Every structure is written in C-alpha cells, then in structure tokens.
C-alpha cells in the first residue's frame, strides 16, 4: 500500500500491472475478510438457532467447509485479475483499481452478496435473541442480553460501512454512469470498507469484559514484553476472581 500512497499523491505514473502486484496481498486478505465476516455471522446464527446440534458439529470438517468459501473467493478473484491483467495507466492505486473493469465488477457483486448474507444472518441472530428475551424465558442469562446489544452495534457498523460502500460501488456500475464518476466512487469507497476491518474484534473488545481479559492474556502469553503495556484492569480481574470463586463453591 506504500506504493499506492506514493503513486497517488506524488508525481508517479501508475500502471495497473505494478499496482496489482503491489496490492495483491491486500486483495487476498480483503476477500478473505469479507467472506470470513459472513461465515462468522452464519456461525453465530447457527449457535443461537440450533444450540444443541451446533455443539455436536465435527469441528475440523465444519470449519474446513466454512473457510473454504472465502478462500475460493479470494484466490478465484486474484487469479482472474492476474489472467486478464493489462498495463493501462491509473489515476489511483488501490485494490479495486488494480483489476480490469469486468473482474472488478465480479469482485463487487460477490462482495455485495456476502454483505447481504451477513446482514441477514446477523439480523436473524438478533431476532432470535429478541424473541427469547421478549418471551421472558427463565433461561435468559446476562451474557445473552449483552450479546443482543453487541449484535445491534455490529449490524449498525456493518450497514454504515461495508454494506453501503459495497452497494453503492456495485450500483454505479450497473447504472452505467460516467466511467470517471464510477472510478471516483470506487476508489474512495475503500475508506469506509477499511473501517469495517475486524469490526467484530473491536466491538467485542469495547463491549465484553471477558473478551478483553482473554485477549490480554493471549497477547501477554506470546509477547511477555507487552504485559505492562496491556494490564488487565483491576475491576476485570476482580470480576474474574469472583466468577472463579462462585464456580469453586458450586
């Protein structure tokens, strides 16, 4: 991406072939991330819809099948972009502009499909949790109430970043408006898309005490030098100790 920034804002001539090979890792990771968000939303929906059957899934086969979808999408688009690559000059270097127009259209259409499915699965999970709470079931736990609020935040962030940006970029292509306007919209749509990167992680980090504690423990386990930089808050540690005490007493 350093080349893209330099070539965009300084006096460099940008060619698609160089741009593609420079941004190739970003294209693959972007496609992987788009598909992964979708399968994570599906995984959450299944965990809420069929909890007992979900626990009996054969994990290696289950995760293998789930993650094969974003892998096929990532490498399929990358291979197609490489096959049809040309050396035309570009105004801006980023993952969308590094692909020829019809491959870029496939990229956006598949991404929009993933985004649409993500919204459906998140909304379905939200609806199931809402129904369970509104029925005032006796097995409602605090963690489920927190999950309901977290789902609302995830859906709002996803709608106002990835879904709207992908939808608008796909829409302008189908409307066949001025090509320069299409390129302008698609180039700057990268900004809201980046905001959606790892949204599950940072939303859960800010909303879940347990997630923060576990993440801190994992980071300090592999990088002990960060132990002082990422201390576990005393309130979180005390809450964890209380839970452990309750478990021992039971």
Keyword list:
single chain, 250 residues, mainly alpha, Rhopdopsin 7-helix transmembrane proteins, 2 domains, two-stranded antiparallel sheet, 11 helices, disordered C terminus
Describe what you observe in this structure.
- The protein contains 11 helices and 2 strands, in the order H-E-H-H-H-E-H-H-H-H-H-H-H.
- Helices cover 78% and strands 2% of the residues.
- Mean pLDDT is 77; it is low at 234-250.
- It folds into 2 domains: 2-207, Rhopdopsin 7-helix transmembrane proteins (Up-down Bundle); 208-250, no CATH class.
- It is mostly helical.
- The protein starts with a helix and ends with a helix.
- The longest helix is centred in the first third of the chain and has 34 residues, at 16-49.
- It is globular.
- A two-stranded antiparallel ribbon has the order 1-2.
- It is found in: Membrane.
- One of its GO terms (molecular function) is G protein-coupled receptor activity.
- The chain crosses the membrane at residues 26-49, 61-85, 105-129, 150-172.
- Keywords: Membrane, Transmembrane, Transmembrane helix.
Summarize the structure.
The protein has 250 residues and is mainly alpha-helical.
């Amino acid at each position: 991406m350093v080349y893209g920034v330099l070539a965009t804002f300084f006096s460099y001539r940008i060619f698609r072939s160089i741009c593609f090979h420079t941004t190739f890792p970003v294209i693959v990771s972007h496609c992987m991330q788009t598909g992964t968000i979708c399968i994570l939303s599906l995984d959450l929906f299944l965990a809420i819809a069929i909890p007992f059957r979900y626990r009996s899934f054969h994990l290696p086969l289950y995760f293998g099948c789930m993650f094969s979808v974003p892998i096929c999408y990532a490498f399929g688009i990358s291979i197609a972009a490489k096959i049809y690559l040309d050396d035309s000059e570009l105004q801006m270097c980023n993952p969308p502009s590094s692909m020829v127009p019809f491959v870029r259209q496939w990229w956006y259409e598949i991404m929009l499909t993933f985004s649409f499915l993500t919204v459906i699965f998140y909304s379905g999970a939200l609806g199931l949790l809402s129904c369970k709470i509104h029925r005032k079931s006796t097995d409602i736990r605090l963690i489920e109430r927190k999950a309901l609020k977290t789902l609302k935040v995830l859906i709002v962030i996803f709608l106002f970043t990835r879904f709207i940006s992908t939808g608008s970029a796909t829409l302008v292509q189908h409307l066949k408006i001025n090509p320069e306007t299409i390129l302008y919209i698609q180039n700057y749509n990268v900004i809201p898309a980046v905001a959606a990167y790892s949204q599950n992680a940072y939303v859960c980090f800010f909303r879940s005490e347990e997630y923060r504690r576990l993440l801190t423990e994992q980071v300090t386990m592999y990088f002990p030098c960060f132990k002082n930089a990422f201390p576990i808050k005393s309130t979180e540690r005390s809450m964890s100790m209380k839970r452990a005490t309750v478990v021992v007493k039971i």
